[in-house]
Design brief:
371 residues; mainly alpha; Hypothetical protein af1432; elongated
């Protein structure tokens, strides 16, 4: 279990403890104030690293950072019950949350009546719904809530597909196609694609969350560039399967917490060729998928890998995936590197424009994400 998982579980546990004690004792009782302090401390430690923390309920799971919070047990059930009693399915805690604001929120959560709670400046509340309407006195959820819930499911489906490849089982590519089709259908162009991406990822799920991020960001970018219909669908499938060759690379190299040796780097770089070879043997997968798997690490000036030909120019879709792949990798916590700030990632993309990346794509990509 990752450190962030432990902290999220602590937040859930301390919130349940604070509400329980608030119901047993007076609001000023030392035990109540102690629990509030504990909850405030662990929330502050998480919000010291990220701008906000969203927890939402999906079926019987508590979701945080695109995945279910593991091993919550009875305390998780109590947490869900406490929120459900107030008609809440999503809670977002924002950076610099004041202790007094948290204290008042716990008082309202602990109240025995069924009255809904209003959102505050640093605590946003809502529901995650597909159909129906929101209760009037619950703040509407972020426009991206449904897409984030979809993304969580997409990560789980993608993981199954990639593990089928790793187990030498013919993958169910229909699932990959359905992920792409569903996202294209759901995506609202008025929503910034960055709102769909979670900037904080952890070692145990990095590969699958990153690939899903790249696929969704690639679809948004390709749509922004004017691709549509079957072309846009094929681009999405290519992005979703572009890193399938990594399933043929030893886990010790993929998840190594430090820089790779020369030999390890050489082995890692084989994933593009291995991925293209594997996809080339499969049926009912667009040829573009094989091309992108092979080319997505070939730079605009012909450098990168694999080394094919001096005058080789990658397919435009491979060039698009190269941009989205690097952007998401830079803004993510990786086994060997912490996430960069937005300004840093933009600076790197601009520096690489014309050499690492197609300058026209960089100009359009930056326009899209900075709208």
């Amino acid at each position: 279990m990752s450190l962030i998982d432990h902290k999220i579980i602590s937040i859930i546990s301390e919130l349940v403890g604070a509400v329980t004690n608030m119901r047993l004792y007076s609001h000023k009782h030392p035990q109540v104030l102690y629990r509030i302090d504990c909850l405030f401390e662990v929330i502050s430690s998480v919000l010291g690293k990220v701008p906000d923390l969203t927890l939402f309920i999906l079926d019987d799971d508590i979701i945080a950072f695109d995945k279910p919070v593991p091993d919550t047990g009875l305390v998780g059930e109590s947490f869900i019950k406490i929120l459900s009693n107030k008609g809440i399915e999503r809670i977002t805690l924002l950076k610099n949350l004041p202790r007094l604001e948290l204290y008042k929120f716990i008082i309202e959560l602990a109240a025995s009546d069924k009255k809904s709670i209003e959102a505050t400046s640093h605590i946003k509340l809502g529901k995650v719904i597909i159909e129906g309407t929101l209760e009037q006195n619950i703040e509407p959820p972020d426009e991206t809530a449904e897409l984030i819930a979809f993304k969580y499911k997409a990560v789980e489906e993608l993981k199954k597909i990639y593990l089928e490849v790793q187990g030498n089982t013919i993958p169910n590519t229909d699932k990959a196609k359905q992920i792409v089709r569903d996202f294209i259908k759901m995506y609202d162009k008025s929503i910034s694609p960055l709102n769909i991406l979670d900037p904080v990822k952890y070692d145990d799920e990095y590969t699958y969350v990153h690939i899903t991020n790249v696929a969704l960001l690639t679809i948004c970018f390709a749509d922004y560039l004017g691709f549509s219909g079957k072309n846009l669908e094929d681009i999405g499938i290519a992005a979703l399967l572009h890193d399938v060759g990594k399933m043929f690379i030893p886990d010790g190299i993929l998840s190594k917490p430090g820089p790779l040796t020369v030999q390890e780097r050489a082995e890692m770089e084989k994933h593009t060729l291995k991925g293209a070879q594997y996809i080339g043997k499969q049926e009912n997968i667009p040829r573009l998928t094989m091309v992108s798997a092979l080319e997505h690490h070939i730079k605009y000036d012909g450098s990168g890998y694999p080394l094919i030909s001096k005058n080789w120019r990658p397919n435009i879709v491979s060039q698009i995936i190269s941009v989205t792949d690097v952007y998401d990798a830079l803004r993510s916590n990786r086994p060997y590197n912490e996430a960069m700030q937005h300004d840093q990632t933009v600076a790197i993309l601009k520096t690489g424009s014309g050499s690492d990346f197609n300058p026209v794509l960089i100009e359009n990509f930056l326009n899209m994400i900075e709208q």
